[in-house]
Structure formats: structure tokens, C-alpha cells
Amino acid sequence: MRKITYYLLLFASLVNCQEKEQTKNTKAMEIVNKIPAEKRISYAVHVNALTPYELYLDDILIDFFYEDNMNNTTELNPYLLENGKHKLKIRYLPTVKDMFSKKGLLDPRDIYTREDSRWHVFFVKLNKDPNVPLGYTNEIDYGSSELKIVPPPSQVPYWEQEWDLEIKDLPYKLKGWSESEDLSKMDKDQLKKEVVAFFEQQRNLLNEGKVDDYLKLGLKKDEEIIVATYGEDLEYYTSQERKDNLLRAKDHMLPLENFEMVLYADGRLVSLEIPDGKYRRWSALMSKSDKGGMSDWPIKLHKPKGSKDFEIIRK
Tens digits of per-residue pLDDT, 126-136? Predict the structure, then answer.
């Protein structure tokens, strides 16, 4: 009788967890469903670069590539909370060959050789539609979408360029970290202690295969991403595929080591990352498969205004 009671309670607990997760998704989709298809605007940045680079939006690292010669499109919506002025920054780094040489400098010619041979950054607005060949319905004028790059006057360790973006057509507004505590004002040692403790909790959940508990801590993140991406991958959030992917980390999580604490969003987001080497800017939450493959499980934390506890708000 006790065994039957135990399994009934366990089943009820699992159902309750799934119902809560589904409720979150339902609330998010209620918001999305009120947005007409033609208003579901996505913003993106396309980078064409010969050298390694890092891409930042509003002081948040949103993309990076540490090899040479990359073309990549990064959607901005997951990190855009509302319309208004936003700041985009790209940091060009020396080529892989030069990065590990004694010189270790970025050459201006790696960014800009001449007008018809240079690297590009495009800021575009998309009206996405998965039912059309290109995946979006509007025409993009790349000529007027280009953000001009000015190369450095001489060899430098790295080169940064910033642009002010005017975001006008988002049909949603998210709270995110807009009202979060400024973590830069905390005692640094105490902050690091709390962040490491949260990461250790996450590491243990992944290592023990407690997928439902792990996902539960990211419900707020999921809810906001569903709105920002208009439910594009809605089915994935509660799918077995997602859980199976997380279960790859079971019994394979590496210890937290060789990391640094990084503040983003002017002190309102925090994470632990690998600072250099082959896995530079990977999350400190890393796993290694039996075949030697490495994976990381990134999270960015914030403290809601007035709260003593961290919450996962983005990856």
C-alpha cells in the first residue's frame, strides 16, 4: 500500500510540474496569439568577418566566434526587452595565426582592404514566415542595412566599434532584467560566493539527471523567449527531445574550475565563464562525453528587484 501511495504521489508531482510548465507556456502564447502575423517583427545582425569576433548588445555578449572567416546571423529579439535605443558593439580580435604569435595584433587589412574587399555588419528587420522559402516575407535592402566599419589606423590588440540601434517595431515588452538589482554594487566576494553556489546547484541537477528540477528553474527564461520569438520553437520547450539532450550531461558534468565571474547589462546579469583557451567564453557548466566531446550549458542570472535569490533569465 505504501508503494502504491508513493507512486501516486510521484505521478501527481510530475503532472503538477508539467501543468505548471504548460501554464507558463500558455500564458506566453496568449500574448503571442494576440500579435498579428504581420506585426511579428524580428531584428537580426549579420556578421561577415575574416577574424575572430565578439558581438555585444546592450553590454551583453550575444555571439562569439574564435576562428577565422565566419558568416553568421544572430537574432536580437531574445535580448531585446522593448523598443527604444539599443547599443550594438563588435570586437574584432587578431586572426588565429596572429592571436597565438608573439605579435598578437590585429592588422587593419584583416578588416578593410578596399571598398570592394572588406568585412561587413548588417542590421536587418525580418517579418518571419516559416512557410516561405527564405523564412521571411519582407525584402531586405542590404545597402541601407549596412553598419559602416572604420578600420583601426594601425595594428592593435583588438578593435571595437559601436552603433546606436533604433528599435521601433517590437510588438511586445518584457521585464527581463530591466528592474533587476545592480550586482556591481554588491561585495564582489559575496556575489561570487552566491553565483558559484547557484552554478553548483545547476551542475548537480544536470549530473544527477534531475531534468525536471533543472528546467523548473528556467521557466521565467522560457516564458520570455517564447514571447520574443513568437513561439517559434514552442513544442521543444516541453518535449522529450529537450530532456534527452539535457540527460547527455548525466554523470558527465565537469567540476567548476578555471572560470571567471562576468557581469553583463551594466551589472544586472552575471555568469561564470571560461576566460581563455580553446573553450573561451563557454559556460563554466561543462560536460564531457565518454567519447571526449565537450558541451556547455550556459545560464545568465539576475536578482529581481528586492529579491535575495538569483533567477535564470537567459542562457
Answer: 887 767 666 66
d(CA 85, CA 71): 26
| Cα separation, 299 vs 276, whole angstroms | 18
pLDDT tens digits for range 4-25? 444 444 444 444 444 444 445 7
Cα 280 to Cα 275: distance, rounded to the nearest angstrom: 5
What whole-number distance in Å separates Cα of residue 160 and Cα of residue 91?
4
Q: What are phi and psi of 251, to 5 degrees?
A: 65, 15
Q: Which residue has the cell 528556467?
A: 218
DSSP 101: S
Residue 264: per-residue pLDDT: 98
Report the candidate in 136, 110, 251, 259 with the shortest Cα–Cα distance to residue 195.
Answer: 259
Q: Which three cell numbers stand for residue 50?
A: 575574416
| pLDDT of amino acid 3 | 43
Grid cell of 304 as nine digits: 529581481
Q: What sections of the chain are H helices per DSSP?
A: 2-33, 96-99, 142-145, 188-207, 211-216, 219-228, 234-237, 240-247
Strand blocks (E) in the chain: 41-49, 53-57, 60-65, 70-75, 84-92, 112-114, 117-118, 120-127, 159-167, 260-264, 269-273, 286-288, 294-296, 300-302, 311-314
What residues of the chain score a pLDDT lower than 70?
A: 1-24, 98-102, 113-118, 130, 132-139
Euclidean distance between CA atoms 120 and 48, whole angstroms: 5
For residue 103, the model assigns a pLDDT of 73
Count of residues in the chain: 315
Beta bridge partners of 283: 273
